[in-house]
Structure formats: C-alpha cells, structure tokens
Amino acid sequence: MKKRILDYRGKIDNLLEENAPDTDWEAVLSEHLVQIGFFQHERLVHLLVTLAFALFTILTILAGLVMESVMLLGLTVAFLVLLVPYIMHYYLLENETQKMYVQYDNILVHIQTAKIGRELQQEE
Q1: If DSSP codes are grouped into helix, strand and coil, which group holds residue 124?
Q2: Most confident of the ranges 14-28, 29-43, 64-78
Q3: What distance in Å separates the CA atoms of residue 37 and residue 20, rounded to the nearest whole number?
Q4: Cα–chain-centroid distance for residue 118?
Q5: Which residues, including other chains, have CB under 8 Å from residue 73's CB and lie 6 or more apart?
Q6: Residues 38-74: tens digit of each pLDDT
Q7: In terms of Cα–Cα distance, which of 96, 88, 98, 3 is closest to 49?
Q8: Burial class of residue 85 in the structure, from the number of CB atoms within 10 Å of its CB (0-12 exposed, 13-18 middle, 19+ buried)
Q9: What is the pLDDT confidence band of residue 124, given thresholds at 50, 70 and 90?
C-alpha cells in the first residue's frame, strides 16, 4: 500500500507540474476522487486496527501489573512490536491522504483555468 499511494501521488504531482495543454482535468479529477476514496477506506481500516492493538497493549500492561506474569510481559512486548509499525503505516496513510486533498484543490484550479481560457477563446 505504501508504494501504491506514493506512486499515485507522484503521478498526480507530475501531471500538475507538467500542466500539459491536452490533459483532461475533468477525467483526472474523477479518477482522483476514486483514489482518495480507496485511500480513505484503507486509512479507516488501519485506524481501527491500530486502535485495537493499542487497546490490547494497554490491557496486557494493566493485566501484567495486576497478575505479575512473565507470559503477559511477553504478550505486551509482542503487541508493542506490532503496534509501532501499525502507527507508522497509519501516519503515512493519513499524511498522504491529506496531501491528496491539496492535489484535489490544485486540480480544481486547473479546471477553472482551462474553463476561463476556453471562454476567452470563444469571445475572440
């Protein structure tokens, strides 16, 4: 997922930077909204998984304090080892999705600019 979101965002950044006159910005916008939806769904799923692992970690820490069990200490360590990558991945998804919102706004600017350009050509 990391590669996919970074590749896609890079592709859109390149389109925005190139600003080729033959770019169909309406189609780009439509596809971008679909991709944002996919990544928002992925972000929600990872948020729920991350919260679950955080809750399990806290519960095993509390149970370990009450029961003083070595097994619970091992389970706590296992949850912590899994929680850190989940947090890092969620952080990536959150930030990249936020950057995609900025791209969305920039695509809208390109659509408006193209529309104004067409109107000016029709007036001539």
Answers
A1: coil
A2: 29-43
A3: 26
A4: 34
A5: 64
A6: 999 999 999 999 999 999 999 998 998 888 888 888 8
A7: 88
A8: exposed
A9: low
